[in-house]
Amino acid sequence: MAAAARTLRIGLIPGDGIGREVIPAGRRVLESLPSSLNLKFSFVDLDAGYDTFQRTGTALPDKTVETLKKECDGALFGAVSSPSTKVAGYSSPIVALRKKLDLYANVRPVKTTVGSSNGNPIDLVIVRENTEDLYVKEETTRETPEGKVAEAIKRISERASSRISTIAGEIALRRQKIRAAAPGTSTRTEPMVTITHKSNVLSQTDGLFRETARRALAAEKFSSVAVEEQIVDSMVYKLFRQPEYYDVIVAPNLYGDILSDGAAALVGSLGLVPSANVGDGFAIGEPCHGSAPDIEGKGIANPIATLRSVALMLEFLGEEKAAAKIYTAVDANLDEAKFLSPDMGGKATTQQVLDDVLKRL
Ligand SMILES: NC(=O)C1=CN([C@@H]2O[C@H](COP(=O)(O)OP(=O)(O)OC[C@H]3O[C@@H](n4cnc5c(N)ncnc54)[C@H](O)[C@@H]3O)[C@@H](O)[C@H]2O)C=CC1
Ligand SMILES: O=C(O)CCCC(=O)C(=O)O
């Protein structure tokens, strides 16, 4: 008798702007996976974002958080339009969601299929701490005789630094295993984690991150992993000069956010780079990009970052085979370069890119 299909319930949170254009593409890909995978999906639509805030007075309704916690196996998040000026009562829902669900790792693979800006292949992962640093958002402003002074807390804890470094080491080992199983696909000989910090200036906060990361990665299970460190400003320089050198980069929250957008430029577009917000037993796939108001409503947003985020979510939910199908279909779309969206120099719409990927599934 055939084994019963596994059913995964997925929360869909499109958010604002192009989030609403790319999340439906992510759903279509899940619905179109071959039946031989024995996987079924059910979906629940959930609200969050600036539009939700304007309609309801809250950017992240309790119902969204409770439904994710009680009903869902995983989720997809599009993007939100957080204003650059303070709006009373508004706070970024994705930053809050990461904390509320304790999704402590933000895993952001950056990979070329055809070649990078310097012609060499890039295949690295940025593993970004996802719950603290300046993103605790404890800010104050006070009046002084010289004018206003604003301050923000940068919180770094041993616990969060240790667990993010451990997951970075585990990802490095997993990547090495995948490379070993496919000889000839990479010239990298050993797994490597690069710790990024600014502890030459911030000796206590980034100093704690650096020391804790060193200690976590010195564990016996990581004895085959090369551990290096790089101060974040020269990390940017080296990343742009020699991106092919890097394997896994572990970073506190803000540096990880900035480095991943920079790395996206190296592989051609923010519209290509996925992420997964990962905790123990739960993952939210989320493209690295924002709500892109400059192209919103034009139907030309690149859906590939989202499709890869779907695959990444599936990987963390233990469905590697299904993830591999999506990666292969997306890579084939990029390799053939017939249906590319405008950010990639093509003319295809979101729908045309999606249709091409679906055809390959
Ligand atoms: N996780 C989230 O929800 C995030 C939300 N944001 C929010 O997004 C809004 C806009 O932020 P920006 O700084 O403009 O960053 P952005 O990532 O939205 O856009 C930067 C540039 O990349 C392009 N781009 C982004 N995604 C693309 C895609 N899929 N296809 C083609 N081109 C794409 C945009 O058109 C724009 O030119 C802000 O309100 C910001 O707060 C920004 C980053 C993450
Ligand atoms: O705009 C927002 O609300 C979130 C911005 C934060 C961010 O860029 C990220 O964490 O990926």
TrEMBL record:
GO biological process: isocitrate metabolic process; lysine biosynthetic process; tricarboxylic acid cycle
PROSITE patterns membership: IDH_IMDH
Pathway involvement of the protein, from the record: Amino-acid biosynthesis; L-lysine biosynthesis via AAA pathway; L-alpha-aminoadipate from 2-oxoglutarate: step 4/5
Pfam families: Iso_dh
Gene3D superfamilies, sorted: Isopropylmalate Dehydrogenase
Assigned EC number: 1.1.1.87
Keyword Magnesium: yes
Domain of life, per lineage: Eukaryota
Name of the protein in its database record: homoisocitrate dehydrogenase
Record lineage: Eukaryota, Fungi, Dikarya, Ascomycota, Pezizomycotina
